[in-house]
Amino acid sequence: MTTLLPFINKQFNGTIWRMEIDSLSETVFVEIRNSEEKKVSFGSVNLLNGNINFDDYTTPERWLTGIETAYDGVLLLHHYLAETSPVHKGLIAVDAVTAQTLWSNYTYAFDYLSLNGPLLYNMQMQPKKLFLADIKTGATNRPHLPQADKELVNSIVAPQALPVTYLKQPLPIEPYGNMMHYLEYNNFRIVSLHSFTADRLQQHLYIMNDHEIVYKDILNDNIQKLQPEAFILHKNQLIYIKNKSKLKVLNF
């Protein structure tokens, strides 16, 4: 019997609020929020060797900070204009391995990530003028060139929402609801669905090779409502979050 085992299985101290993947450096970054302590921290994990680069990086602003993007071994963070405002303000560039601050600028804002790197603008200047920045230094490389600076397309594949009846295979649980999230990769079929037993609503993950279940896990236990899609495929790796606080990665 073929079985799969997690390649990465990392528990974080708080809720994983956001995840970002840098395909150039094969690094996954997570934003962890602890509402009780009003603290946000960041983690970095190497997808090639499974090493935890860092898992509790914080900025002097302990709460009004979040992930903006990641590119070429650099995590780009932002602050918020105010606690009640969704507007982003300022940028901090962090090395993906060492967590060293490479540069910061509190008048810059992020617009989008291109094939050539991040497109930024100065919030103090109107009208807005985009420029291509060096993500390692924050220096201006050149003005924005629309034809050259096409938006970067990532390598992430998300599952489809399909009726449970599409599977045409019995499962060890009775599905709750009539929909599942489904993805095929090589000979594998990856499914997440819900069950309701003993007054507990749970979200499950199953990986099948033909009709054989080669991996299973409970994604969310004792939840109050149906959850959205719960996993992604990045190149040959399945990446998902268990109980909102544990990062798990499987290699195919």
Question: Can you describe this structure?
Answer:
The protein is mostly beta strands and 252 residues long. The protein has strands spanning 8-11, 15-22, 27-34, 39-46, 52-57, 65-71, 74-80, 88-95, 101-105, 108-114, 117-122, 131-133, 140-143, 156-157, 160-163, 175-185, 188-197, 200-209, 212-223, 231-234, 237-242, 246-251. The chain has 2 domains: 12-143, Lipocalin (Beta Barrel), CATH 2.40.128; 156-234, no CATH class. It contains no helices and 22 strands. The strands form 5 sheets. It has a 5-stranded antiparallel β-sheet, with no helix packed on it. The mean pLDDT is 95.
Output the helix-strand order: EEEEEEEEEEEEEEEEEEEEEE
CATH class category name of the largest domain: Mainly Beta
Q: What's the domain count?
A: 2
Taking pLDDT < 50 over at least 5 consecutive residues as the criterion, the unreliable ranges are none
